[in-house]
Automatic annotation (TrEMBL):
Keywords: Cell membrane, Membrane, Transmembrane, Transmembrane helix. It comes from the Bacteria. It is a multi-pass membrane protein. This is UPF0060 membrane protein. InterPro entries: EmrE-like, UPF0060. The chain crosses the membrane at residues 7-28, 34-53, 62-78, 90-107. It is found in: Cell membrane. The keyword Cell membrane applies. Belongs to the UPF0060 family. Its main location: membrane.
Protein backbone atom coordinates (compact mmCIF):
# COMPACT_ATOMS: atom_id res chain seq x y z
CA UNK A 1 0.00 0.00 0.00
CA UNK A 2 2.90 2.38 0.79
CA UNK A 3 4.35 1.87 -2.70
CA UNK A 4 1.01 2.56 -4.41
CA UNK A 5 0.42 5.74 -2.38
CA UNK A 6 3.95 6.92 -3.03
CA UNK A 7 3.76 6.28 -6.77
CA UNK A 8 0.37 7.99 -6.97
CA UNK A 9 1.75 11.02 -5.15
CA UNK A 10 4.74 11.11 -7.52
CA UNK A 11 2.42 10.94 -10.56
CA UNK A 12 0.21 13.78 -9.30
CA UNK A 13 3.32 15.81 -8.46
CA UNK A 14 4.73 15.25 -11.96
CA UNK A 15 1.46 16.24 -13.62
CA UNK A 16 1.38 19.47 -11.62
CA UNK A 17 4.94 20.31 -12.67
CA UNK A 18 4.47 19.38 -16.32
CA UNK A 19 1.26 21.40 -16.59
CA UNK A 20 2.87 24.34 -14.80
CA UNK A 21 5.72 24.33 -17.32
CA UNK A 22 3.71 23.43 -20.42
CA UNK A 23 1.30 26.37 -20.18
CA UNK A 24 4.04 29.04 -20.24
CA UNK A 25 5.68 27.09 -23.07
CA UNK A 26 2.42 27.38 -25.02
CA UNK A 27 2.34 31.11 -24.31
CA UNK A 28 5.97 31.71 -25.29
CA UNK A 29 6.30 29.33 -28.23
CA UNK A 30 2.80 28.99 -29.64
CA UNK A 31 1.26 32.40 -28.94
CA UNK A 32 -1.31 31.08 -26.46
CA UNK A 33 -3.15 33.67 -24.33
CA UNK A 34 -1.36 35.31 -21.41
CA UNK A 35 -4.09 34.24 -18.96
CA UNK A 36 -2.66 30.70 -19.16
CA UNK A 37 0.08 31.92 -16.82
CA UNK A 38 -2.45 32.02 -13.96
CA UNK A 39 -3.18 28.27 -13.95
CA UNK A 40 0.53 27.69 -14.60
CA UNK A 41 1.44 29.55 -11.41
CA UNK A 42 -1.23 27.66 -9.46
CA UNK A 43 0.01 24.36 -10.86
CA UNK A 44 3.64 25.10 -9.97
CA UNK A 45 2.62 26.15 -6.46
CA UNK A 46 0.72 22.86 -6.14
CA UNK A 47 3.82 21.02 -7.38
CA UNK A 48 5.96 22.62 -4.67
CA UNK A 49 3.38 21.80 -2.02
CA UNK A 50 3.02 18.22 -3.20
CA UNK A 51 6.77 17.65 -2.89
CA UNK A 52 6.48 18.37 0.83
CA UNK A 53 3.99 15.52 1.28
CA UNK A 54 6.48 12.80 0.40
CA UNK A 55 7.53 10.74 3.41
CA UNK A 56 11.32 11.00 3.15
CA UNK A 57 14.03 13.65 2.98
CA UNK A 58 13.97 16.26 0.24
CA UNK A 59 17.11 15.06 -1.55
CA UNK A 60 15.96 11.46 -1.84
CA UNK A 61 12.46 12.60 -2.81
CA UNK A 62 13.81 14.84 -5.59
CA UNK A 63 16.14 12.12 -6.88
CA UNK A 64 13.42 9.47 -6.95
CA UNK A 65 10.86 11.91 -8.35
CA UNK A 66 13.07 12.45 -11.38
CA UNK A 67 12.42 8.91 -12.59
CA UNK A 68 8.66 9.32 -12.40
CA UNK A 69 8.91 12.75 -14.04
CA UNK A 70 10.73 11.26 -17.04
CA UNK A 71 8.03 8.60 -17.46
CA UNK A 72 5.24 11.17 -17.13
CA UNK A 73 6.93 13.56 -19.56
CA UNK A 74 7.13 10.82 -22.20
CA UNK A 75 3.45 10.04 -21.58
CA UNK A 76 2.58 13.76 -21.87
CA UNK A 77 4.52 13.97 -25.14
CA UNK A 78 2.38 11.15 -26.51
CA UNK A 79 -1.02 12.03 -25.03
CA UNK A 80 -0.97 15.82 -25.29
CA UNK A 81 1.54 16.66 -28.01
CA UNK A 82 0.70 13.70 -30.21
CA UNK A 83 4.32 12.56 -30.58
CA UNK A 84 4.55 8.80 -30.31
CA UNK A 85 7.50 7.65 -28.20
CA UNK A 86 10.04 5.44 -29.91
CA UNK A 87 11.76 2.47 -28.33
CA UNK A 88 14.60 4.66 -27.02
CA UNK A 89 12.13 6.93 -25.26
CA UNK A 90 10.52 3.87 -23.68
CA UNK A 91 13.83 2.29 -22.68
CA UNK A 92 15.11 5.55 -21.19
CA UNK A 93 11.89 6.07 -19.24
CA UNK A 94 11.96 2.52 -17.89
CA UNK A 95 15.60 2.88 -16.83
CA UNK A 96 14.71 6.14 -15.06
CA UNK A 97 11.76 4.49 -13.34
CA UNK A 98 13.96 1.57 -12.25
CA UNK A 99 16.40 4.08 -10.77
CA UNK A 100 13.54 5.76 -8.93
CA UNK A 101 12.46 2.45 -7.44
CA UNK A 102 15.99 1.64 -6.29
CA UNK A 103 16.45 5.05 -4.67
CA UNK A 104 13.08 5.25 -2.99
CA UNK A 105 12.19 1.68 -2.07
CA UNK A 106 15.59 0.21 -1.17
CA UNK A 107 15.63 -1.35 2.30
CA UNK A 108 17.37 0.93 4.73
CA UNK A 109 17.97 0.79 8.44
CA UNK A 110 15.81 3.19 10.43
Amino acid sequence: MFALKTLTLFVVTALAEILGCYLPWLWLRKGAPTWLLIPAIISLAAFAGLLTLHPTGAGRTYAAYGGVYVMMAIGWMWAVEGVRPDRWDAIGALVSLAGMAIIFFAPRGT
